[in-house]
Write a structure and sequence with these properties.
The chain is α+β, with helices and mostly antiparallel strands. The chain has two domains: about 100 residues, Orthogonal Bundle (Topoisomerase I, Chain A, domain 4), CATH 1.10.132.20; about 70 residues, Gyrase A, domain 2 (2-Layer Sandwich). Helices cover about 60% and strands about 15% of the residues. It contains five helices and six strands, in the order H-H-E-E-E-E-H-E-E-H-H. The strands form two sheets. It has a four-stranded antiparallel sheet, covered by helices on one side. It has a two-stranded antiparallel ribbon with strand order 1-2. A hairpin with a 4-residue loop joins strand 5 and strand 6.
């Protein structure tokens, strides 16, 4: 039962770390990356659909993205979605393909992005702490129901704390890496 609780905890913490990785990938760094646009959703036949499922995303040069919709009627919709996102991008249409230039980041914009990174990081730290709390409560319930001994509970709590510490370091490393990337001048 303790192993199941720990395995479940590890699985949930892995999901939190993966979610952070995905969110950090969407943060603009001044260089073109298709992950900037992948989280955007386009209304396609009445269904919000991820952009990468209705168009081909490309990087022809380091400061340019291209979006080529499979259905040309979506061009105007995709243009509007990109403009209305908080990415600060202005696509240019040639009738078949949207070219999205990635402007260099200003110092002020970099600092705003770092603030945003810290906020995202704190949300994920809180998520990991909540997962730890849930696991600790599950172990305490097992002890209360006399399904495990006090020694087993103590070992389980220590294991969960080690897991939590490891994931906190992992999250911290991801955020620091992204912060360095954002603040780096090219």
């Amino acid at each position: 039962m303790i192993k199941e609780t720990i395995a479940d905890t590890k699985n949930r913490m892995n999901k939190a770390a993966e979610d952070l990785r995905v969110e950090l990938a969407a943060v603009r760094t001044g260089r073109a990356s298709t992950s900037l646009l992948e989280h955007l959703k386009v209304e396609y036949y009445g269904t919000p659909t991820p952009l990468n499922q209705v168009a081909t995303l490309g990087i022809p040069e380091p400061t340019m993205l291209t979006v080529q919709p499979w259905d040309p009627t979506l061009l105007a919709v995709i243009d509007k979605v990109i403009r209305s996102s908080d990415l600060g991008l202005n696509p240019v249409s040639d009738g078949k393909v949207l070219k999205v230039p990635i402007p260099p980041l200003t110092e002020e914009r970099r600092k705003d992005l770092v603030k945003h990174l810290h906020k995202v990081m704190e949300n994920h730290r809180t998520a990991v702490r909540n997962i730890r709390r849930d696991a600790n409560e599950a172990l305490k319930k097992l002890l209360k129901d006399k399904k495990i001994s006090e020694d087993d509970e103590r070992r389980g709590l220590e294991e969960i704390q080690k897991l939590t510490d490891g994931f906190m370091e992992k999250l911290e490393a991801q955020a620091k890496s992204k912060e360095k990337e954002v603040m780096e001048l090219r």
